[in-house]
Each structure stands twice: as C-alpha cells, then as structure tokens.
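Section handout 9: paired folding examples.
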Amino acid sequence: MTDLQTPPSVRTSAAPSPPGGPSSERPARARDATARSQGGKRAGLALTTMVGMVVGSMVGAGVFSLPGRFAQETGVGGALVAWAVAGTGMLMLALVFQRLAVRRPDLDSGVYAYAKAGFGQYTGFLSAIGFWASACVGNVTYWVLIMSTMGALWPALGAGDTLLAAALSTAGLWAFYFLVRRGVREAALLNRIVTAAKVVPILVFVVLALFFFDPGVFADNFGGAAYAGSLFDQVAGTMLITVFVFLGIEAASVYSRHARRREDVGRATVLGFLGVFAVFASVTIVSYGIMPMGEIAELRQPSMAGVLEHAVGPWGTAFVSAGLIVSVLGAYLAWTLMAAEVLHVAARNDDMPRFLKRTAHGDVPSSALLMSTLLSQVVLVITMFSENAFNFALDLTSALSLIPFLLAAGFAVRYVLGAGATRGPAPATFRQRRAARLVVPVAATLYSLFLLYAAGPGFLLLSFLLYAPATALYVLARREQGRRAFTRPELVLCVLVVLGAAAAVLALATGSIDL
C-alpha cells in the first residue's frame, strides 16, 4: 500500500446510494464527467496509488514464512498444484471484486457491503466484524514474527511467544496507535517510504536462490517427504497460508469510495494480484532448490532467512531479517488503517454504533482505531498460551476472512442471476450470456467453500467466540436508530452464532480445540 490518506472532503456522511443493477454505472460515470468539467480531474486516489495499496497490503509477514509453511505440508509437485489452485481461486475473487466495483458502484463500503446487499443487514454486520477481526489478528502475526526474528539474536524473545516478547510487542502496538492517531497523512508518508523498500529484499532473495539453485535437491524435493499425506491433503494443508499471503486483495475495494475513477478499483485489484502472485510462487518454488524440504520445515520463522543463510552464509539471515522488519512494519501500518476504516465506514452506514463515527484531528477514525488496537492486544495475550504463536495467529487470521470472501462471491452469483431476471421466457442467447457471466462468481464461491473445508472446524468455531459478543454492537446500533434488532431469519442466525460460540467454549474446555 503506497498511499492510504483519505482527503477530508470524502469523509462526510454518506449520501443516499443510487439504485443497484447495471444502470448504476451511469451515475458514477456522470459524477466523474461533472467533476472533470468543473475543474480537471476528479479528486481521489489514482490507479497507481490503488495498485500500490493492494500490493502493500498483501506483501507483509506471510511471504517470509512461505518456505517453511509449504515444506511442512508438501513438496515441489504439491506446491505447484497448490499455487495453481490458490492462484486460480484468488484470481476469481479478484475478478468478482473487479466486476462488482463496476456494476454496483453504489456499494462503496468494501467487502462487507456485498454481504449486506445480498444477505441482509445482520449478515453484512457479521461480515464486517469478520473482516475487521481478520485485520486485527493479522497485525498480531506481524509483532510475533518481528520478535521471532529478533529472537535469533536475543534468545529471551524465543519464537515471539515469551513474556518479554509480548511486552515489547505491546509497546510497539500502542506506539503505532499513537502514530496513526496523529494523522492519516503522517502515517501514509511513512507507508510510501517502506512500500518500495520491502519489495526489494524479496526480489533479491529470489535472484540469489536461483543463482545457488541445486537441481538435484530440487528433484529430491519434488515428490514430498515421508510425513506428507495424499496430494489432496498436501494441497489442502497449504490453503490457509495462501489465504493469509493474499489478504489485502480487497484493499482497493475497501477504499473504493476514494477512487478517482470507479473502474480503477477493479483494475488495481487484478494488477496488484498478478504481480504479487508471481513473487509469492517464486519464493516458494526456488526454496526447494536450496535445502531438503525436511530441513526447511524445521527452520524457525522467518524461514526465508534460514534458506538464504544456507545458500550464502550468515549475512543472508541479517539481510532477510532487515527486509522483514521494514516489510512487516509497513504492512502493519496498512492493516491498522484498513481495520479502522472498516469499522468507521460501517458506522457511517448505520451498521455500527455512532461512537465509531468519531474522528480526531488529521481525519483519523479515532474510536475505530482504538477498538482495533484493543482487539489486537487481546489476541496478543492469547498467543502466549498457544503452542505455536505465529501459526496460530496466521491461521486464525485466514479463517476469519473466509466468511466475508464467501459472502462476497455468493452475492456476485445472486447479482448475475437477479440482474438477468425476466418476466417471460429468456432468449437462448441471453441464457448463454448469463451462463458465461456466472462462471467467475460460481468458481469464486466454490473456491471459498474449499477454503472453509481446508480450514477445518476448529478455527471456524473460534471465530464464533468473536461474532457472538460483537453482536451487542449490532443491537446497540439498531436501538440508536429506533429499529427492531432482528428480523425473524436474522434472529435464527443469531441463535446459531451463539450456539457456535458455546460449542467453541466446550471444545476448548475439553481439549478438542488446541490454541
């Protein structure tokens, strides 16, 4: 992410949205034309800026852990299949965001707006909470990884899960809170500096790994190790890490209301995804040509540092570690802003309580920022009791994002079906066009369902521990508006959420779920 500042002129109360459907494209284009006729370009974020937002949001902690996480699950063959599945699936999601940005420009509040439009207000609220929580938990992985990296030189930090590591992470957590609270423009300036800096070490790693690439080691790693299961299990085992590294693909959608041209939202999503996908897949595959996969699997995180050290010596660890800290701090800043933006926009749309609308000087959503930091603090404490702090936070981050992604894809399916509804029999050519338009959203939906299967029930149950108490915010927002809290179907969904939370508590108490 290169520039997340939000001009004060765009942080105003949302105007009534235009009606949905394909005709909604015309009002957006008319606004653009009017703005240009009144004095040049329409104020807002340019395409290059939005591409940078997508790239900056995705390139963070995950890429530095790819070699180890993949080697724990599969060899070269499985990795190639896994990246083909993840790349295709995420491309389908990227195309869903692209098409919805153009065809439903009235839905300019990010991913959760699609869930709300397609499945009701309470479902949209749960999607917003899931996406927000995913960003907050993801921020915890950054601090754990920084402490684990420093732990190679300072053993008292361990793998980022010791009391000292938690104390230093807490200090960093709140230091960034006060930095961002000073003003979005100051934070965005720092973010622009680190975006380019964090990509360079990753590209250097790929180049050096290719230079020291050993075809014999690569061939030995092709079929996987004895601990790997069936190919299907190997691929499924990599899905949460691929989801984690691709989180941020929706960044342009979250900030779509600030785009100079509406069509740039979709273009930025696809362009950013394609570039980052090439980098992530390259980091994973070239690592198999440096070390036996069993040894890669045993490396401490960030495993990229261990791989490069094996190739070039101790300076490789120092080089990757420095790049990681720059990268992670930049990504942390991006996701802190995004998490606060999700709550703030939901409050502006009356889906969250009014206090989350508050902003401080510098146009910062202060209350939303505070809530985001508090949730990250709670999760940071919980990681101290997990068996593997980094993997726990990473997998929980991915699992929390799956429901919002599934709902967005499901809405895209409903939109295509609904937009083409006719009162009489549809012509054959129309049915063929509609079937073609369904390919992308149906593929994205199936991919999201596969991700839910790959995540397993444990992390999904843990997510209910957040959804259930967070529902109090929804009830408070409805009471502030003098509206009934739940419709009958929403009440049924709320009961299911509460039952899911109770099942999670029981599973934790009996040891069925381990942190």
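Moving on to protein 2 of 2.
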Amino acid sequence: MAFFRASTVRYLNRPKCVTIGNIRLRSTTNLVKEADGIDSKDVKSFDEIPGPGMLEVMKAVLSGQLQKPWKLIHQFKRDYGPIWKQKLGSNNLVTLTDPKDFEFVLRNEGKYPRRVQIDPWLIHRQERNLGLGVLLHEGADWHRNRAALSKRMMRPREVATYSDTVNDVITDLVNSLVRGRSNYGKDNIVPEIENTVFKWSLDSACSVILNKKLNLLDDKPHPEAQEFIQAVHDMFESLMWLFIFPVHLHKRFNSKPWRKQLRAWDTIFALAKTLIDERVNDVTKRLTSGEDIDVEGTDFITYLFIKGTLEIDEIYANATELLAAAVDTTSNTFLWVLYCLAKHPHVQESLYEEIKRVVPTGESPTHEHVNRMPYLKAVLRETMRVYPPVTQIGRILDRDVIIRGYRIPAKTVIGSNVWLIGQDPANFPDPLEFRPERWIRKENEQFYGFKALPFGYGPRMCIGKRLAELEIHLATIRVCDQFTLEPTCDVEAKVTTITAPDRPLNLRFINRNA
C-alpha cells in the first residue's frame, strides 16, 4: 500500500488536470484521498457500484438474450446509469457508457497497456505448448511482438504496398459474385454470399501474410480452407459462452463450449502451420543457398523470419492469429457495408458518384484513390457505428482510479460499451439513421474521437486495422462500381463474440451497365 500511495503521488505530480465525470483531479493531490469537491470519506467503494447480480445475468442468458443483448444493455443503463459492474466469468467487469470516462481510462494506461486476458486461448496455448503472439503476450514480450508486427501492419505507407495483392483477390471476389448470381438464375440474387466473403477474406489474408494466394474463389472444392473457416466460427461462438462462467469450471467439467473451443483452435493451428511451414521452409532454403534477400522489400513472414526479433513459435502464433482474425472480423464488417448500402440507395448512389469522380474508368483503385474519397471512409465508419465488430472493449489498469465518484481497484476490467455509445443520441444525433455525412468534417470542425473506437485505441488497438480498412475500402469500390445492390429481407445483428448478421443477406447484385 505504501508503494501504491507513493507511485500514485509521483504519477499525479504533473501539470495536467483530468476531469472524470464531475470529479476534477489536480496534479498535486492523492488520487484517492483528495479530489476537488470530494473528501476521501465521500469516495464510494467498489462494492457500491450498482449492477446486475449473477441471477439477473443468468436469467438473461437462459432467455436467449446472450446473442442479442441490445434490450438488456439498454435496461442496464436505465437501471444503473452510466456506470455499472457485473461478474463476467472470473472477472469483475465495470462498464462505462460515457466516452469521456473511458478516455480517462485509456489515457492512464501504463507503458505496457493491458487488455482483458482471454483465458481459454491462453490455456489452450499452454496445454499445447504453443507460442504466444501479440494478442496474448503481456508486458515487455507484448511490446517486442507489437513492434515487430507494427512496421508491416500498422504503418500506412507499408500497408499501402499491399494494394495490388489485395486487388487481385477482389477481382476473384467480383467474378465469383457474377458466377454465383448466374448459377442461381433468379432475381439477381447471390446465394450464400457469406461464405463467399469468408473465403475472400481468408485468401486476401493469406496473400498478404504468407505471400500465397490459395485461389479459394475458383468454384473448386477447398475442404481444408472450409474447415479452417468453420473452426474460426466455432471458436468465436464457443468463446462467448466461456465468458459467462469461470473458465476453470468449464475445464473441470469438460463442458461442450470448452471442448468446442479446443477443437477449433487445434484445427486453426494445424491448418495454419501447414501454410506457414511452406513459407518458412522456402525462406530457409533461400538463405542456406546464400541468396541475398532484401528484407525491406520482402513479404510479411519472410520479413519477420529474417529480422530475428521474434522466436519462431511467436512468428507461427502471430501469423495464425492474424489469419483467424481475418475470417470473421473483416468479412462480417464487409457484409454489413454491403447490407447498409443495399438498404440505403441514396447512400449507395452518393458513393458511386464519388467513385466515378476519383477512380479513372478501367483502373483498379489504390490506396491513393481511397485517400481522396472521404465519403467511402464515412460509409465504413458509419457502418461500424451501427454494427461495431465487437460490442465492448476493455482495459486493465495497474493503479486504483476514481470514476464518477467510485474507487475502482487496480487489475479490474474496465470496459466501454461501443455499441451503446454509438446508439446514444447524446453522441450521435438521430442514431437510428444511417448517415455517413456525420463523419465528414467541415474545415476546422473538431470531432471527439473517443465516441467511436471500433478498432480500439492506442498501442493495443487491433493490429490488423490498416489491412482490414484497405481490404474493405477497395472491395467496396469494386463492388459498388459494378453492381447496384438491393435487399430482399431485413437483417438484424447477433453477437457470437463478433457482431454478425443473424440470417443470410440474399442481396441482389444488378449490373450497373446492363
């Protein structure tokens, strides 16, 4: 405790002041004892934070609200206000619904920011004697992995070099949509577009990460790729259930979600290893033969292998996790973009007009075109406001903090409900309207960025953010340029850890030049 008090005083001994709710923290005060207008005796304890009990949460689970928790989340905010706590598996979770509160949390991360540790994934790696990647490492090991990956995955200039590779797979996607529509032969509908998009996303990721295009969209059977895709679905779906009860109980009783999670990751790692082995063996042969490889101009895996800053098992872990993440996150977000465009013809036409202004006829779009297309970027941002890839992001701080008058102990999971913030009219006027224009700023107009964090924030933001944006932007341009999209049904969201459509989209793809 003495160390905590001393370190807290050192941290606060800086000129900056921070406002949290109605509390203003001064640079020379003790974080817990003295806040303007609040004496230490007025600071409320963690136990006083309101929130649902385990019985209420279990009732919601049993009533089927787990996959569609929207009403429940709104109810919690009505009942408990802008902050509440609940038990989530083995963790205490504090949920914040005011973006300014979560901004304080993010700005007080330490040198090595901590996200929620996903225990089922960590246990799987330990039991299978597998390495950890950037998703599961903590501390200095996390920082070393993040630094190694960031050069090729987070720097815009580096990611821009993937444009040709990404466009090559998008060409396959567009051709597959044309064939699918023709084979179906009815009302310009492309059936099973979801699986087509999953294969596109996986093939694009393999092309970038492994320098190996799998040609998954050639209408031939690809059983191993399909097995990989299904394993990713199973992993995310079972993970949601593993968050409800402490993971040690799932493990002790060998629950169905636990067995499903382990099988899924075993399949993911086994199939990914086959692909990664091929690339690593090729690099090894080239180095053994004395070939001088330009490390800066080479592909992602070769770059990591030659640089030597990561252990070989870390390279395998990072590549596997990037491939798995690409299947459900990038693909589902792109599906939502297509759905939103189909549901809002005026938005679709405004985007088409921008495409025709910026991208010359007959040319494939590039990152340079994307940089001159504010409406395209606004469409993606508005889609992720309405359908965020994940509904909640969280952090763990290494010091006690006071938020809205409550003392929250160090090591507590503090989360921001991204979905609820995006639906709050205080943050976004008329939140039920799909309006990309809200993201296009006028000259000198300021935007409070913490209202929208679909990829997270800071050093712990999604490592695949830049690549996912590039893929979705370029694919949206190509699809919108060739087709007019029309819906055939209304679709709602469901949560399987990832926010996904609850039924097939069955969109119509009508040739613009027909």
